[in-house]
Amino acid sequence: MTGAGGQRRATSWFHGRVAMVTGGGSGIGRAIALELAAAGAAVVIGDIVAAAGEETAREATARGANAIAVTADVAREEDAARLVSTTRQVFGRLDFLVNCAGNVSVAPVLELSEADWRALIAVHLTGTFLCCRAAFDAVSEAGGGVVSMSSSYAFKGRPGGAHYSAAKAGIFGFTRVLASELAPRATANVIAPGPIDTPRWRHGLSDAEYAAKRDKRVKDVPMGRLGAPEDIAEATLFLLGPHGRWITGQVLHVNGGEFYA
Amino acid sequence: MTGRLDGRVALVTGAGQGIGRAVALRFAREGACVAALDIDGASAERTAGELGGRSLAVRADVADSAAIDAAVHEVERTLGPVDVLANIGGVYGRHAPIREQTLENWQRVLDVNLTGGFICAKRVLRGMVDRRWGRIINVSSGHALGGRPNVSPYTASKMAVIGFTKALALEVARSNVTVNAIMPGITDTAMPRMYASEERLRAQGEQNPMGRIGRPEDIANAMAFLASEDGGYITGQTIAVNGGIRELP
C-alpha cells in the first residue's frame, strides 16, 4: 500500500535511514515494516517467530528495501540488546524504533493467573522499556523517533483484559518519560489503535464467526469499518516522518472515531 | 460525619506511613475495622496502635501473592471479610534516566505498584462479588501524566494502574463493586523527599493553584468518599487530588 505519501517520503526523509520494528512478523508490525520499506528506509524486523519475521523481511526486500529479520523475545534483556547491536552492525545506525511486539490472553481478574498477568506485562510493557533502553543512544544520535503501540483499551478499559489495559496504559506513561529524555534530539509517541483487522483479531474464527464479530464491533465505530493495519502504518510514518518533528510525548488515537479522547 | 464506613472491613496497604497511614486513620474514624498492612511490620504496628477499636497490623509484601493470601486470611479471621481495599503500598524506585535503569529496578517498581494491586484485588474480589458490595481504590500519581525525566518505571507503573482500574471496574460493575484510582499530586510525605529538597517542595507549594502541596489527609478525604455509600455510582474513574495543577488526559 504505497501511496503518493510514501513516494514523497522516500526522497525527502526515510531514504538512507534505518528502522527497527518489533513484532514485525505479522499484523500491525508487518504493515509498518513494509510501509517503512516502501518509503525508502532499511528495516530490521524483530519477531519471536522466526519464519514470520523472515517472511516480512523477504516482502520488504521484494519492495526494494534493505531488510533483515532478527528472532528475538523483547521481554529478555539480552534479546533486546541483540536487536539493536545487530541493527548497528548491519546498517551502521538506528533512526527509528517501533514497538509492536505483544502477546495476548483474555480472562477476568478473578480467573486471571498471576503467571498470565506477568507474561503479558513482560512482553508489552517491559519489552517496550528494554527495546527503548537498548535503542536510546542510537535513536538520539540519529535524531530519529520512537513509536510504541498502546491501545484504545488502555483508555477505555476492557473486561477480561485488566493486564492488557494496564500494560498498554503503562506504555503511554513510559513514553512520556522517554519523550522528556529524548528531547530535544528525538521524539517518542504512542498510537492507540482501535479495532484493527489483523490475523490475531481473526484467529480461530470461521468466516461466519469473523463476519459476526466484525459487524458487532463496527457498530461502535463511526467510520463504519474495522481499521486496517495500514491505517496504523500511515499514522506511524507520520509521527516518524518529516511532518511529525514537533510532536512528542503524545498519544494519537487511530480508531475510526470509536471514542473521543 | 463519623460512621460512613460503620461495619465495613478495610484493608489498607502501605499503611505504615504517609498516605496509607492517613487513609487507615481516616477509615477507622469513619467506623471501619482497619487492617493496616505494610512490608515494614513495625510501621504497620505503629499505625494499628493509633487506630484503636478493632484493627490489625499485618506485615506482607504486596508483590508476594502467597504472603498476601496468608495476610488476607488473617484479616478475614480477625476482622471479617474485606469490603474496602485501598491499594496504597508503593515504591518510587531508582531515580535515573532510561538508559541507566536496570531491569531489576524496573521489575521491582512494577511488581509493587502494579502487580501488587492486582494480587491484592484478586484476593479480596471474590468475596466482594459474592456479597455484592465492594470498593477497590488504587493510587496512581501525578507523575503518570507529568512525563518528567528519570522516573520511567514509576511513571509506567502509575499510568498502568489507571488502565488496570478501568478494565477491572467494567468487570465487576454489575456486582456492585466499584474500582477507582486517586491521582495525588505532590503530597507531604517521605516519598517526594526522595527526589526533592525542602526548598523545592516549598516552591512546588507556591506554584500550586491552591498555594500548597497536598497533605496525606487530602488524599484520605477523597478515599473515604469513594469507599463510602456516597461514592457508589462512581467507578472506573481517576480522580486527581492535587490542588488543580493539571488536567487529566
Structure, explained:
The complex is a heterodimer of chains A (261) and B (249). Chain A is α/β, with parallel strands linked by helices. Chain A has a single domain (4-253), classed as Rossmann fold, CATH 3.40.50.720. Chain A has 10 helices and 7 strands. Chain A has helices at residues 4-14, 27-38, 50-62, 77-91, 114-142, 152-156, 162-182, 199-202, 207-218, 229-240; strands at residues 18-22, 42-47, 67-71, 96-99, 145-149, 187-193, 251-254. A 7-stranded parallel beta sheet of chain A has the order 3-2-1-4-5-6-7, with helices on both faces. In chain A, helix 2 links the parallel strand 1 (18-22) and strand 2. In chain A, helix 2 (27-38) crosses helix 10 and helix 4 runs parallel beside helix 5. The longest helix of chain A has 29 residues, at 114-142. The radius of gyration of chain A is 17 Å and the shape is globular. Chain A starts with a helix and ends in a 7-residue tail after the last strand. Residues 1-6 of chain A have low confidence and may be disordered. Chain B has 249 residues and is of the alpha/beta class. Chain B has one domain (9-241): Rossmann fold (3-Layer(aba) Sandwich). Helices cover 45% and strands 15% of the residues of chain B. Chain B has 8 helices and 7 strands. In chain B, helix 1 packs parallel to helix 2, helix 1 (18-29) crosses helix 8 and helix 3 runs parallel beside helix 4 (103-131). The chains are: A alpha/beta (261), B alpha/beta (249).
